[in-house]
Structure formats: C-alpha cells, structure tokens
C-alpha cells in the first residue's frame, strides 16, 4: 500500500528521558527446561510397563520376541543361549526394532554359568580368585568384555557377590570367589571394572546373599542366616561397592528379621529399605532374579510376582518365556489400577531404565 501524505508530515514526538519498561526486541526468551519426571509420567502406561519386562531368548530364536519388541511390550531380553550359528546382525537389528532400544543382558560369570563360550571360556569365580591376582582378573574380564559388547550386549549378570559359607561350598559352589568377604569384594570390584571398561553394566548377585542359604532357589524356597549375620558377612560386598555404578539382582531369599517369610525379590523391606535406602543403591538399576524359579512359583503367579517385585523397589522383572509377556503385563496393569503398584514407583523404575539406556525421557 502507498504511504499517506498525512502520515508523512506528522510532527515528531519529543524525546522522553523516562526509562523504558518495554524489553528490547533482542531479549532472549526464558523457558523452563523440560522436567524428566513429568515427561515419564506422560508416557503411555503400556509403554512404561513394557520397559520393566525382560524376557529370555535363545541366540538362534530371537524372532520369538520380535513382535513384543516391535510393539514396545518388552524393554529387554536376556540371552539364555548363544550357539556358534547365531547371527550377531539379527541381535543388533532386534535391539533397534522397537519404539525404544532394548537392554540386552546375559549371564556371563565364567565356569558353569557362561552363555558366550564361543567368545572365550572364563574360569569359575573360585578358580579366578585361587589362581589369579585382582589385576589379572580385571584385565581378563576387560578383554572379554570388548567381544561381548561388540555383539550389542549392555548388561551382564555378574559378578557373583555371594560369600561362601565357612563350613562347605553352599548352594552356589564355585560361583563364589571366596568365604572371605574382603576377597569377594576385591574380586567383584575388579570384575565390575572390567565389564564397565567396555561400557557394559555389571550386576551384582544375589542380594542380600545366597552363599549360606538353606538351598537353591531354583528348586525350592530358601532361607538365609539372620539379618545380623548377613550384615557381618554377606552384605559386606554390597556395602563396599555402593556408589560404584553397578546394578543389583535380588534373589528369592527369605531373610529372618527382614522379609517376614517372603522372598527378598518381592520385599519392600529388602529392596526399597535395606538395598536402596540403607546401603545407598537409591538410583541403581535393580533386577529381580528369574521369576520362574520354584522359590517364587510355589507361592505366587508369575504376573503377581512381577508386580510385587516392582512395587517392592525392583526396576526390571526378569522371566524366561516370551509367551508370558501379555500375562505379566496385564497383572502389572491391574496392580497399578488397584493401587498395589503406585504409579510413582513404576515411573521411578522407568526412570532408572531409561538412564541405563541413555535415553532422555523428554525426547521419547
């Protein structure tokens, strides 16, 4: 449009000496940074539940879990086997096929409990402690960890931090480094450093201590010595390694004076109380032991146990069959709806999981 003559000939206004209250046009806009807790709270409930579930798969049967991964119904897998014929490219593809990356875990202690023997055989924990120095064990694990990380594995359920009993091998046998808590602590710390050097999260097990338990939780309910005795021996490695960046697996162990007859893996006193609050693992990533063990299924349904474990303070419910994913997810959703699993606890678990995955919840 043209400029009018009247507008062009208007008298110039006198200059004011009063300070301007109008901010300059170049002033930066101020906005509050996103609140991660609010971003997690806003995520869909089914996605949050899925993040807490880790299911067992075989290296040559990864496609069994693919539909659940793609749909976001599961947040992690644990490799139960890894045959020589397994294709690493399939695992790497599976990791990124869902709405959020998977956590991929494996049992890789050495000795009888090692799934990745094709990458090199590790001695048992007891053999390591008996024949090698702490520095040699750390170097051994660090070298092995580089090969494990190349497969796309982020989490290793090792080292075993259980302290063997003084009067025999106990239910864990040579999976323990020693019957001396100081030796267990030193070798567990070295093993953890070796795994972390390759960017893998080591997970101490089996809290609060399976070494002197009355039996093997795979086969039946098992009881530990009293809490006072655990404090003097079995809890020492956990006390010493608090704040080191490790995760923790909680065993299905009844602890007199702590869990009131329930397994520790579903006990708020054991996980939220003793482990997180007292021992200092407040923000650690915490896993249940596999929920298909007899110590659990003799008392609870699988889904009920998963919901109880997360409500008690665990972040990830571990079980074996992909066929159970929907059952477990429905049980957790029901527990949320009925208030047995507070949303705040579920959100805290998701926060710990996303931190471990390196994911900003406000960018999901």
Reconstruct the topology from this structure.
Elements: H1 5-8, H2 36-41, H3 45-51, E1 53-58, H4 66-70, E2 76-81, H5 88-95, E3 103-106, E4 108-110, E5 113-114, H6 125-131, H7 134-150, E6 155-156, H8 181-196, E7 201-207, E8 222-223, H9 227-232, H10 236-241, E9 247-250, E10 253-254, H11 269-278, E11 286-288, H12 294-297, H13 302-312, E12 317-319, H14 325-337, H15 343-357
Parallel strand pairs: 1-2, 1-12, 2-3, 3-6, 6-7, 7-9, 8-10, 9-11
Antiparallel strand pairs: 4-5
Helix pairs in contact: 7-8, 13-14
Commentary on this structure:
The chain is built from 15 helices and 12 strands. The protein is an alpha/beta fold. The protein has one domain (39-359): TIM Barrel. The strands form 3 sheets. It has an 8-stranded parallel sheet with strand order 11-9-7-6-3-2-1-12. A two-stranded antiparallel sheet has the order 4-5. Strands 8-10 form a two-stranded parallel sheet. The protein is globular, with a radius of gyration of 26 Å. The chain starts with a helix and ends in a 7-residue tail after the last helix. Residues 1-20 have low confidence and may be disordered.
**How many separate helices?**
15
Strand content: 5-15%
The counted number of beta strands is 12
In the predicted model, the low-confidence regions spanning at least 5 consecutive residues are 1-20
* Structural class by secondary-structure content: alpha/beta
Broad CATH class: Alpha Beta
CATH topology: TIM Barrel
Determine the N-to-C terminus distance: 48 Å
Order of helices and strands: HHHEHEHEEEHHEHEEHHEEHEHHEHH
Mean of residue pLDDT? 92
Helical content stands at 25-40%
Count of the separate structural domains: 1
CATH architectural designation: Alpha-Beta Barrel
Supply Rg: 26 Å
């Amino acid at each position: 449009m043209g400029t009018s003559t009247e507008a062009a000939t208007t008298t110039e206004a006198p200059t004011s000496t009063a300070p301007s209250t109008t901010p300059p046009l170049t002033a930066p806009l101020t906005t509050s940074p996103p609140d991660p807790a609010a971003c997690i709270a806003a995520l869909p409930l089914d996605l949050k539940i899925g993040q807490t579930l880790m299911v067992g798969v075989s290296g040559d049967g990864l496609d069994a879990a693919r539909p659940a991964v793609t749909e976001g119904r599961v947040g992690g897998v644990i490799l139960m086997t890894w045959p020589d014929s397994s294709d690493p490219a399939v695992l790497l593809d599976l990791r990124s096929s869902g709405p959020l990356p998977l956590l991929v875990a494996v049992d890789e202690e050495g000795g009888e409990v090692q799934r990745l023997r094709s990458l090199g055989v590790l001695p048992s924990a007891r053999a390591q402690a008996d024949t090698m120095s702490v520095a040699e064990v750390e170097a051994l694990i660090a070298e092995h960890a580089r090969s494990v990380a190349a497969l796309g594995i982020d989490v290793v359920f090792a080292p075993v931090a259980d302290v063997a009993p003084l009067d025999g091998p106990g239910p864990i046998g040579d999976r323990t480094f020693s019957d001396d808590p100081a030796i267990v602590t030193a070798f567990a710390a070295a093993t953890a450093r070796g795994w972390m050097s390759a960017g893998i999260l080591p997970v101490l097990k089996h809290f609060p201590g399976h070494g002197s338990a009355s039996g093997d939780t795979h086969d039946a309910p098992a009881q530990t010595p009293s809490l006072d005795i655990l404090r003097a021996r079995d809890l020492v490695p956990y006390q010493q390694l608090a704040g080191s960046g490790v995760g923790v697996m909680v065993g299905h162990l009844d602890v007199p004076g702590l869990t009131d007859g329930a397994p520790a893996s579903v006990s708020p006193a054991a996980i939220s109380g003793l482990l997180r609050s007292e021992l200092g693992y407040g923000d650690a990533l915490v896993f249940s032991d596999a929920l298909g063990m007899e110590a659990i299924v003799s008392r609870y349904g699988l889904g009920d146990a998963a919901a109880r474990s997360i409500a008690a303070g665990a972040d990830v419910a571990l079980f074996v069959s992909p066929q159970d994913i929907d059952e477990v997810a429905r049980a957790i959703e029901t527990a949320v709806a009925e208030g047995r699993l507070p949303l705040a606890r579920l959100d805290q678990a998701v926060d710990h999981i996303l931190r471990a995955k390196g994911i900003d919840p406000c960018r999901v």
